[in-house]
Amino acid sequence: MTKRAGKGAHFLAKQILDLIQEARFEVGHHLREQQLADTLSVSRTPVRAAMNLLETLGVIEARKNQGFFLAQPAEGLHRVELDLPEAGDEALYNQLVRDRLEGVIPVSLTQTDIAQRYNVDRVTMTRALARLSEDGLIARNTGHGWRFQPSLDSESTLRSSYDFRLTMEPAALLLPTFAPDRSVLERCRREHIFLTSHLGLSGATPKQLFETDATFHEMFAEFSGNVFMHQAMQQQNRLRRLLEFRGYENRRRIREWCGEHLDIIDAVLDNDMAAASQRMHDHLSHAFRSTDVPVVKSEPRSRIDDRSDAQVR
Q1: What does the alpha-carbon distance between residue 44 and residue 137 come to, in Å, rounded to a whole number?
Q2: Does residue 248 have a pLDDT over 70?
Q3: At 291, phi and psi to the nearest 5?
Q4: d(Cα 313, Cα 311) in Å, to the nearest integer?
Q5: End-to-end CA distance of the chain
Q6: Phi first, then psi: what are they for 138, rounded to 5°?
Q7: Above pLDDT 70, what percent of the chain?
Q8: pLDDT band at 247 (very low <50, low <70, confident <90, very high)
Q9: Residue 205's closest CA among 239, 157, 246?
Q10: What does DSSP assign to residue 138?
């Protein structure tokens, strides 16, 4: 039986497909593992796993003692389907976030609550909670259970956040201490080009989309040379992580903000900082007007909520 490829292999395989199409490689082109690893900023091991997956789909062929070679025309690779099965822990992760946004579950709950409500085994639950914690969405209570982290949970706090960012982020690009790293900008540019491709958008998870968005804004705050701006942007990203989770279901808007990000990157690469600052302002204004993410609904008063509150005291 063929070993099932992991989620990472699927995502990396999509990136490799995108690179092949962008470079318009011909059939028979030698796809070197190390070169792909360097381009995608990963080690050779995950690249090999992705290549093995592409081989099972007939996209490439492995030649003994020679490596991998392209087996299909690059222009036809957009038709290749890379369905990514949702693991149990990822399904639980997504459901917990959705239910918190809808106010179905309280801000604090225990593992017993989760196991009973979602009928999941301990391993699946532990993995989902570990991922939520790693992503900064939840934290352990001082007593028992877990608590969702503070978020932009009202229209006023969301507006205040954007007002603050509209003041800070465009200004950061105009500081005399602003010093961009062109290699980092180029890598960020490639990531956005990948996301705007059809395969990229169909396969990227909300977490991956958020990280791309958050990294973009933190990158420019760091380039500003002002440590307080950088720290402030990191805090803003922590606050908006949960609330904006559902915003990444709007694929049309993702394409729009990817394009807006690329316009800003291009202006900085051209050293046109006035244009970059204006484009950042326009981008943030558009983002606020376009947001259709509902605020977190009121706390449910239920047996689960009462028990969780009692455990926190």
Answers
A1: 31
A2: no
A3: -65, 130
A4: 6
A5: 52
A6: -135, 165
A7: 80
A8: low
A9: 246
A10: E
Task: Write the single-letter amino acid at 172.
Answer: A
pLDDT by residue (tens digit) across 125-167? 888 888 788 777 788 988 789 998 777 666 777 888 899 999 9
What is the number of other CB atoms lying within 10 angstroms of the CB of residue 66? 9
Give the Cα separation of 190 and 262 in Å (integer): 9
CA–CA gap between residue 158 and residue 155 (Å, rounded): 5
Q: Is residue 173 a contact partner of residue 268, using CB atoms and an 8 Å limit?
A: yes
Instruction: Provide the percentage of residues in the chain whose pLDDT is more than 90.
Output: 30
Q: Structure tokens of 158?
A: 């969301």
Torsion, Cα 183 188 194 195, to 10 degrees, reads 180
The number of helices, as runs of H, and strands, as runs of E, in the chain is 14, 6
- 29-44 residue pLDDT tens: 999 988 998 888 777 8
Q: How far is CA 232 from CA 90, 161, 218, in A?
A: 30, 11, 9
State how far the Cα of 14 lies from the Cα of 28, in Å rounded to an integer: 19
CA distances from 110 to 21, 76, 96, 133, 143 (A): 47, 49, 12, 14, 10
Cα separation, 242 vs 136, whole angstroms: 9
Query: Which residues, 6 or more positions from 43, have their beta carbon under 8 angstroms from its beta carbon?
Result: 37
What's the pLDDT at 300? 46
Beta-strand pair 60-63/30-31: unpaired
Residue spans of beta strands (DSSP E) within 47-119: 60-63, 67-70, 108-109
Residue 279 has pLDDT above 70, yes or no: yes
Per-residue DSSP letter, 61: E
